[in-house]
Amino acid sequence: MTCESCAEKVRAALEGKPGVSSISIDVGKEEVLVEASLTSAEVQSLIESTGRRAVLKGIGGSERGVNHTGGEKTQSQWKFCGKPRFK
């Protein structure tokens, strides 16, 4: 992810999805930080629906009962690797 256009595609894939509470994208570092009650596989699937490959770099702590569903909210950091992937 090296341009704002790619970043906007990733943002659009995540924004407004049930369970996603915040998104922070750093184009220069090719990273996105996602705070969500989704599993890492669900977040990865949303990101990769844009044609980019995403690799989980790390998961932050979780807090019970902080989102509207009463579940856990975790922060995960993703790194984009290689060229766009098309299915």
For the largest beta sheet, what order do the strands appear in spatially?
A: 1-2-4-3
Instruction: Give the helices and strands as they follow along the chain.
Output: HEEHEE
Number of self-contained structural domains? 1
What is the fold named in CATH at topology level? Answer: Alpha-Beta Plaits
Radius of gyration: 12 Å
Q: What percentage of residues falls in helices of 4 or more residues?
A: 10-25%
The computed structural class is alpha+beta
Find the count of extended strands (DSSP E, 2+ residues): 4
Principal-axes geometry comes out as: globular
Q: Please give the alpha-carbon distance between the first and last residues.
A: 18 Å
* Average residue pLDDT: 75
User: How many DSSP helices?
Assistant: 2
CATH architecture annotation? 2-Layer Sandwich
- Unreliable spans: 63-71, 82-87
- Biggest sheet details: 4 strands, antiparallel
Strand content: 35-45%
Protein name: HMA domain-containing protein
InterPro entries: HMA_dom, HMA_dom_sf
Pfam families: HMA (PF00403)
Domain HMA: 1-55
